[in-house]
Amino acid sequence: MVDKDICILVVDDFSTMRRLIKRILKELELTNIIEADNGVAAWERINEQQVDLVVCDWNMPTMTGLDLLEKLRADERFTQLPFIMVTAEGKKESVIEATKKGVTGYITKPFNAKDLERKLKTVFNE
Amino acid sequence: MNSKLIQPFIEATQNVVRIMTDLELSAGTPYLKKDKAAKGDLSGVLGMTGDFNGTLSVSFTEAGILQIVSGMFGERIEQLDDEIHDAAGELTNMISGQARRNLETMGISLEAAIPTVIQGKCHMIKHITSAPTVAVDFRLRTGGEFTVELCLEGPR
């Protein structure tokens, strides 16, 4: 399984989803979790401290998940930062768009601990 | 509204609640709902456009939403607060997303807006078209109910 000490940034404008994702991550014994409620706040957090994985909602005000992904990939420090996009949409066009922008993984709501664990294994090539 | 359109929403609702909470639930028989009074205390409402235009609403009784959110968070939640309010919107969003994915396999494309949430005893749900509203009542095995209403006009 993934290194338990990695720092995971959970980004979602809804506190409910942040809480839910944190609960699922804790079920997977991943407890080093920080949060942001939009893309701008997430960008600040990533610049302030070491982040090893971003789990980010697509649809957010101020800066969407896709905008954050694009900003990260345009910065040479973050081109390899693992980034999992979370969304209720599962349309092919959306997946293609996110892949083109450099997303590492894509998970569709609803999901449970098993689904996220599977995705983490893929993202970290385990 | 074509009656086959409700089935993907029934399946999506069952799937979302089971995956997010592990709670068992049963769906009633779809029926035409003629009044605008919400059956629950808290409702998520979301507009949809595309091959059909209309609205999806998910109206939770207090007991229903508290049980679902308790299941989602893995701890007992006893009071309606802002987080429960958000959860009603997020659940509506997830049901819509999954149902629309199912509809895509039937060749029907729908886009959804961001859900709004209405709270209060005896609130009204105003669907944006005059098409008939089809409703389905859901009951959680542990008690607590909620109702999904679908009002779609079309096809375009």
Describe the structure.
The complex is a heterodimer of chains A (126) and B (156). With 126 residues, chain A is an alpha/beta fold. Helices cover 42% and strands 17% of the residues of chain A. In chain A, helix 3 links the parallel strand 3 and strand 4. The model of chain A has no long low-confidence stretch (mean pLDDT 92). Chain B is of the alpha+beta class. Chain B contains 3 helices and 8 strands; from the N terminus they run H-E-E-E-E-H-H-E-E-E-E. Chain B has helices at 6-21, 62-73, 82-104; strands at residues 25-27, 31-33, 42-50, 53-60, 110-112, 116-119, 133-140, 145-153. In chain B, strands 1, 2, 3, 4, 5, 6, 7 and 8 form an 8-stranded antiparallel sheet that branches. Classes of the chains: A alpha/beta (126), B alpha+beta (156). The interface between A and B is medium-sized, with 18 and 23 residues.
Produce the secondary structure layout.
The complex is a heterodimer of chains A (126) and B (156).
Chain A: E1 8-11, H1 15-27, E2 33-36, H2 39-48, E3 53-57, H3 65-73, E4 83-87, H4 92-101, E5 105-108, H5 113-123
Helix pairs in contact in A: 2-3
Chain B: H1 6-21, E1 25-27, E2 31-33, E3 42-50, E4 53-60, H2 62-73, H3 82-104, E5 110-112, E6 116-119, E7 133-140, E8 145-153
Keywords:
heterodimer, A: 126 residues, alpha/beta, five-stranded parallel sheet, 5 helices, 42% helix, globular, B: 156 residues, alpha+beta, eight-stranded antiparallel sheet, 33% helix, 30% strand
